[in-house]
Amino acid sequence: MKTIGVVGAGVMGAGVAQSAAQAGLRVLLMDVDDTALAAASRRIHDGLRMRALLGQDRSEDATTVMARITPTASLDGFADVDFVVENVVEKWEVKRDVYARLDQVCRPACVFAANTSVIPITQIAAATARPGLVLGMHFMNPVPLKPAVEVIRGFHTTDETLARAQEFLRRMGKRGIVVNDAPGFVNNRILMLMINEAVNLVQEGVATARDIDDIFESCDGHKMGPLATADLIGLDTILLSLEGLQQAFGDPRFRPSTLLRKLVSAGRHGRKSGSGFFEYDNHQPRTSPQL
Fold first, then answer.
1. Which one of 188, 196, 241, 275 is the catalytic residue?
2. For 108-135, what is each residue's pLDDT tens digit?
């Protein structure tokens, strides 16, 4: 494995690209949005500099690692990649079109890993001509700092595909935890319910966002409370995930909070927009006056 294709240059895609490049792999980072590609390059460079400053990795300088990443607005170069990690928006019609194009461009032996939150891997695999080479690889944010990845085996996924995925993760110093395919898998099926209920508590005036997170951090020992976690993931992504889970299961427990919809409509998407349940100033959260 020498070359990795990463589709989608958002927060997750940038994190995957950085981790792969740090592992010595060549990376093609593709996004149709030039602004997203530029932002991803800045984010990766800043992440590499921070690692060096903290003494986490001094084996190579940021320039050397960055040189392994090639931003591109086209999938044409993916004809030479060995492994693809897809990170596009959680909308089936968008993913379906991406995989149709990847199927045409990539070599028949190339593995497709879907970094999706809720869309079933079996559904994605069935839309390709290589279902046995498709699996889920649910990275958590921030990708470079997380030691493990939720790996999802679809109905068609072969043992060889899983082995190749595990080797890819080992190259990046990560461990894959394999689960079976179901909407939301393990992490998001549980996490989205918790976040949605935390939003409902804010909406009902039971507690502020800061106090809710303080309970989880100070009383339960969580490193980050559910609402700060939601801001980190992106409230727009949380909303799409809940809508996908509600559609998949027909369960009212997954019905998105009215307040969540309101914040997303207002453009308060979390850290990436500068505000969500908290305001972000120099990356330090402080509670919004309204929440």
1. 188
2. 999 999 999 889 999 999 999 999 999 9
